[in-house]
Amino acid sequence: MKTTLANTTISAIRGDISDQKDIEAVVNAANAELKSGGGVAGALHRAAGSGLAEECRPMAPIRPGEAVISGAHNLPNTHVIHCLGPVYGKDKSEALLLKRCYLNALSLAEQHNIKSIAFPAISTGIFGYPIEETADIIISALKEKIPESEVIKEVRFVLFSENDLKFYEEKVVGGI
Ligand code: ADP
To answer: Which pLDDT band, with edges at 50, 70 and 90, does 119 fall under?
Structure first.
């Protein structure tokens, strides 16, 4: 499913963030140490190879809400943008920190002349953020950044489960 916001295509698909061949930058739901792990970080680091963790080591640790950019190594992309989402119920205010992740990722894409970017559902796995509470945050970040961007032409949300995809179709892409 797709829509447009200020001439940028916004879409949601079901898939694996480590297998987005036609996208320039993929976003990592990273850990503070920028290492491999479970979920999204594990999938991206496995597919990228050990060079990704090596490149990231000097940039770690990062704090909740922050984002850093690296090369994509063996991934079929040009860049990885690593965001540390908030741990729900622990990092405050989680809504502000989650929004900062999306804003910072989009700013980095803009600065690096990246035309297409794919996001996983940051913080909604191991970090426990209820996905239902994330839609308004994501939409407000998109509405703040996309209209002022002259670079970003495509934003894709890549969801792992059918239920998460349905939610994004209705409330994120459908809510813009
Ligand atoms: P966090 O630690 O920020 O919560 P996770 O990686 O645990 O990040 O999960 C974030 C979301 O990404 C969850 O909804 C999870 O189901 C989903 N997910 C896990 N692996 C992948 C993958 N390979 N591609 C896309 N989404 C994934």
So the answer is: very high
Question: What atom of ligand 1 comes closest to residue 122's alpha carbon?
Answer: 3
For residue 172 the two structure tokens come to 């994120």
Question: Can you tell me the distance from the alpha carbon of 57 to that of 111, in angstroms, rounded to the nearest whole number?
Answer: 22
- How many domains would you assign to the chain? 1
The tens digit of pLDDT for each residue in 53-111 reads: 999 999 999 999 999 999 999 999 999 999 999 999 999 999 999 999 999 999 999 99
**49-53: Cβ within 8 A, 24+ apart:** 49/73, 49/74, 52/80
The domain of 65 spans 2-173
Instruction: Judge if the beta carbon of residue 40 lies within 6 A of ligand 1.
Output: yes
User: Does the Cβ of 123 fall within 6 Å of ligand 1?
Assistant: yes
Task: Identify the CATH number of the domain in which residue 169 sits.
Answer: 3.40.220.10
pTM of the predicted model as reported, rounded to 2 decimal places:
0.98
Cα 124 to middle of ligand 1, angstroms: 7
With a 6 Å cutoff on the Cβ, whether 16 touches ligand 1 is yes
